[in-house]
Amino acid sequence: MLIRPVVLLMALLVPFGHAFAGDNAPKRIVSTAPSVTEMLYAIGLGDNIVGVTTYCDYPSAAKSKPKIGGMSNPSLEAVVRARPDMVVLTTDGNPKEFVARLRSLKIRAYVFKARMIEEMPMAVRELGAELSAGKRSADLASCIESEIGVFKRIHKPRGKALFIVWPEPLVVAGGGSAVGDAMSRLGLVNVASADEGGAKSSYPKFSLEEAVASAPDYIFIGMSMGDGNNIKELSRPLIKRLKNTPAAKNNRVYFISDNLYRYGPRVFMGMREMLDLMDKDASASINKKGCVIE
Amino acid sequence: MKRPDKTMVLLILAFLVAASAMIAVFGGPRFINPFSMSAMESEIVLMIRLPRVITAMLMGAALGAAGAVLQGMLRNPLADPYILGLSSGATLFAAGAIISGISVIGGFTIPLMAFIGAMSTGAVVGVLGYKRGGLWPERLLLAGIGVGFLCSAILMLMMSMADSEGMRHAMLWIFGDLGSADWPLIPYGAGLIAAGIFIAEHRRRGLNSLMLGDDLAHSLGFSPRKETALLFTAVGLLTAASVSMGGMIGFIGLLIPHIMRFLFGADNRLLIPASAMGGSALLLISDLIGRTIIHPAEIPAGVVTAIIGAPYFLYLLRRRDVLGI
Fold it and tell me: Most CB atoms within 10 A, among A281, A294, B100, B224?
């Protein structure tokens, strides 16, 4: 007696199941990190984004997307309310248990794991495959590959450098960060990298006397968006205390934009910026365009 | 127990502080030979290690003395600037100044804000702890815990609303960090601490009388209210100085007076200077450990004092003879 309703139900459900299987491209994507947001825009999925973090400020269109909280504390409720068919997270800043919570709510989630520049083309292709944006992501990946090649060609030893993320307490970019990776690709020796006897973590709270003793030739101070003046003001006492480093003596203490902080195509813009500060000739010899999609 | 000779005890402690300071200045993560320093090494010693070591000495002294005064005054071995919420109040006001950017006005802004914070928190806690003509130690402690939680919660709220970097900045302050210690703040801190210790030392007989209870203090010729107010001001000065130089560092104010009282007895004429010196030595060593073990990365000194202090405090809790003043 029950067979008929069951068959009917199955008959009704099959087309839906089929539709799900056939068109896997997410239409509503939530991003839980600024770097992920940029990556999604770069592979042409900007219009499908229905939620970003409060820190997502690039490209400027991202600023007007609905907010789902911060990077370290995204709101599960806000994510659910955005009715996403895909949430893209990163291991670099999102809480680990958040993925499990999403999956327990049957929300599809993809975790972006790449952190180093070498891994970027592969990671972009994989993200594109996951989000059915194969064509655009393949284009971006090969553009990134050519970018990597550009910086390989102009690579030569340029001395020691320290990249300051926050002046007080002193937090710097270590070897395990994309910033540290970018520095070594420019031929700089990152004095805070573990290979140079520095710290193991990506962004260590660093010893001030080590900053002096390591005698960096260049000091870069990163400015995060909207916070530039604050950083300049806060860095003043620190710069004074580093006045006897080769960097300060030769006027090579530079403030630099937040390009390098965003793991994605903008990293190469940050590298161009850094190169331009150090070596105008080398910088003039490479194209200015990069792969950034606004 | 035989009363130890005051001069002898203080000399030994002074030697201990001096020895810790020497190790902290020349040992550190990298040994620097004081007799043959390169230009860079002398710069490191003069511009980085010395201000840091002096800051640690001053902060440790302030915390140790503040703890000794509070514990005697309130006749409660659990009293210290943290338990009573004074540090949270000082931190809230100082961090508020940093987050809102008032800090650029001048070097004295932060110590002043911290002092206002400590004193106003102290006043609120005092009012809440006051009943039927006197301060009730238990009420005072509970009020302190409550007000301290409230201040911490407001601080967290402010940090959540501030941008991510501002938050990280305030975050390290909560743990107490000496990594950025520099000369400019030292005169302000030293001034406040000198004033605080001077008042405490000046009123040490009053403090001794308060330890016997308000009635006895009265019959000995001291006004409990006046003594309490003066001593509270001293604690406020000491707390403000310590917080504004390096944030919240816990357990020194609780631990050191215990150890000193255990070793040398409860007489405040000896206890206050001994706790100040003991606090100096402990913070010097804690900071040295913090900047050495994972060099060139650093651990905030407050984390080290908590790791050393908390187990020792728990051990002390089990010894009732030590806790009973």
Answer: B224
Model ipTM value: 0.71
Could you tell me if A169 lies within 8 Å of chain B, comparing CB atoms?
yes
A192 touches chain B (CB under 8 A): yes
Q: For the whole model, what pTM was predicted?
A: 0.80
Q: Which two tokens stand for residue A38?
A: 């940029």
Give the 3-state secondary structure of chain A: CCHHHHHHHHHHHHHHHHHHHHCCCCCCEEECCHHHHHHHHHCCCHHHEEEECCCCCCCHHHHHCCECECCCCECHHHHHHCCCCEEEEECCCCCHHHHHHHHHCCCCEEEECCCCHHHHHHHHHHHHHHCCCHHHHHHHHHHHHHHHHHHHHCCCCCEEEEEEEECCCCEECCCCCHHHHHHHHCCEEECCCHHHCCCCCCCCEECHHHHHHCCCCEEEEECCCCCHHHHHHHHHHHHHHCCCCHHHHCCCEEEECHHHHCCCCHHHHHHHHHHHHHCHHHHHCCCCCCCCCC
All residues at 6 or more sequence positions from B25 whose CB lies less than 8 Å from its CB, including other chains: B32, B45, B49, B50, B53
Residues B55 and B177: their CA atoms lie apart, in Å, by 11
CB B204 within 8 A of CB B269: yes
Taking contacts as CB-CB distances below 8 angstroms, the residues of chain A near B29 are 207, 209-210
* Nearest chain B alpha carbon to A229: B101
Amino acid identity for residue B182 in this structure:
D
**Hey, what amino acid is at A50?**
V
Contact assignment for B48 to A209 by CB distance below 8 Å: yes
Nearest-neighbour CA in chain B from A107: distance (Å): 27
Interface mutation vs chain A, best among B295, B299, B303, B304, most A CBs within 10 Å:
B295
Task: Return phi, psi of residue A255, to 5°.
Answer: -90, 140
Each residue's pLDDT expressed in tens, for chain B with a length of 325 residues: 556 788 899 999 999 999 999 999 998 778 888 888 888 888 888 888 999 999 999 999 999 999 999 998 888 787 889 888 899 999 999 888 877 766 555 667 888 889 999 999 999 998 898 887 767 777 888 898 899 999 988 988 887 776 555 555 556 566 778 887 888 889 989 999 999 999 999 998 888 888 888 788 888 888 888 898 899 899 999 999 999 888 888 889 988 998 899 888 888 889 999 999 999 999 999 999 998 888 878 888 989 998 988 887 777 667 655 444 4
Inter-chain touch B165–A166, beta carbons under 8 Å: yes
CB-based contact B189:B247 (threshold 8 Å): no
Strands B130-131 and B134-135: what pairing? antiparallel
* Among B26, B32, B40, the residue to mutate for chain A (most A Cβ within 10 A): B40
Bridge-based pairing of strands A218-222 and A253-256 is: parallel
Beta strands in chain B (DSSP E): 130-131, 134-135
